Amino acid sequence: MSPRLLKKALLRLGFWCLIAVLLLYAVFPFYYAIVTSLKPSSALFEVSYWIEHPDFSNYAAILQQASFLRAIGNSLVVALCVVTLALFLSLTAAYALGRVKFRGRGTVLMMVLGVSMFPQVAVLSGLFEVIRALGLYNTSWALILSYTIFTLPFTVWVLTTFMGQLPHELEEAAIMDGASPWVTLTRVLLPLLWPALVTTGLLAFIAAWNEFLFALTFTLTDSQRTVPVAIALISGGSPHELPWGLLMAASVLVTVPLVILVLIFQRRIVSGLTAGALKG
Amino acid sequence: MSVSTAPVPFDELLLTRETPVQRRRVRAAWLFLTPMLVCLALVAAWPLLRTFWFSLTDASLADTGGATFIGVSNYLLFSGSGWSGILVDPQWWNAVRNTLYFTVVSVGLEVVLGLLVALLLSIKFTGRSLVRALILIPWAIPTIVSAKIWSWMLNDQFGIINHLMISLGLIDAPLAWTADADLSMWAVIIVDVWKTVPFVTLLMLAALQMLPSDCYEAARVDGIHPLKVFWRVTLPLLMPALLVAAIFRILDSLRVFDVIYVLTSNSSSTMSMSVYARQHLVEFQDVGYGSAASTLLFLVVAVIAMLYLYLGRRQLEVRA
What we know:
Chain A has 280 residues and is mostly helical.
């Protein structure tokens, strides 16, 4: 083999080694959680890299816990309501911000951007008071309402960007026909916005599903908890003896749907992330 | 979550003169904005103002309404024997130090690793889109879950990391990653870096795709070494995107809470400003004191955010 070919082959080998390292780094922890979740508690404390004898007792145990199933239900309700609320509020707002020129538009956009940078803990005490005043403490409504603080700025921003990119001829035709702004939005623009709605909805869903600080603070009882709080509070006999198999089974159960969503909608998620430059 | 200051495309042609139709549209626009503005006022503006107010009172969690004004005593108070308040609380300054250390180290690592991974994935190869999808997995996993998975992997007795390091001969005895005061911050950083590198990678990949290809062709024709091309061409062109990613990550790291709360609980060697504020607010029920800590954190974040907006606006002006 000539030196040039050898150099090329070595470069190629090095490249694939790097890709392998990268994949191992990205995927291994989740894979290891699956391996652990499929072990009976007796085999838990011997390190193994492969699934040898799959044992589903951890899954059976966690699925029998009523509070865990309840938490999954709560998380689903909260995340879906947040997505619906945020998409509705931001759709109308994005129409105003993306299609109409008016004084104060820049200020509103800056305000929305500012809210997106809030540290959540800065509003914790004030929000706690609002939630208690509205009688929502320890209900899913407390979470649905409070989650709009981090979903709305993002959905408004991304939808405004998408809205501004739609051709204006469509809207002019609608105005000529005497359509009201509401009809223009729902009948003319909305059908074109579905891809953007799916992307932003998905990202808002993931953010709401993963939220922890508000869920920990605004709910109190097992029956109202969401998945992240339920998992954080799983404990064993003592702080040093966590039921790791059970914990990993719960972790895998709540993460697999997200991983599947991400793999299916990868392209959309990437376009949404870079359009709004969101961080999760 | 937050968003960039990318200019929103705007329809200049559509109704620029003041006409009845235009006036009706502006009225409709404000009507359409109202629900969102009311919602943000309720969950963001008003609670923030209340937090500022609470920080000047002795409010407790049980009765936030019955608070009395006590000036800046939560921040700083001189009472005969000596100073008290957050600004002289060593725990608070410890939390500030931890947060800054965490922010500098993790954001630094994330930006460097994110850039390297993006450079690697910008090379065309078979299966690239699958690899790009797979590296998103850490980003999609809830922070709580990744903290739990890593605390199992970093477990001192049965963790796979210790097992691996011992069998490779890197260490003699297992390390107590999450309990040892010297190591626990590193455990937090490891988890945070693992989770957020995909985000930085995505931003960098998007920026790399927009680089002009003619510079590279010219460099290739002139036979310039690829490393030199990277330092002289790619990196300077990527700088704006790199700064945006870094500022997002800095704003996010300054308010870090979840990963620390789950991985190391209330240990003082990793306590961040958010963990400190929440501990006083909820566990000690001292809303006044906790709100003062929250206010200080808010001010730090606000200064950085304003700096970012100012720089972003300047950049837009330069571009226009």
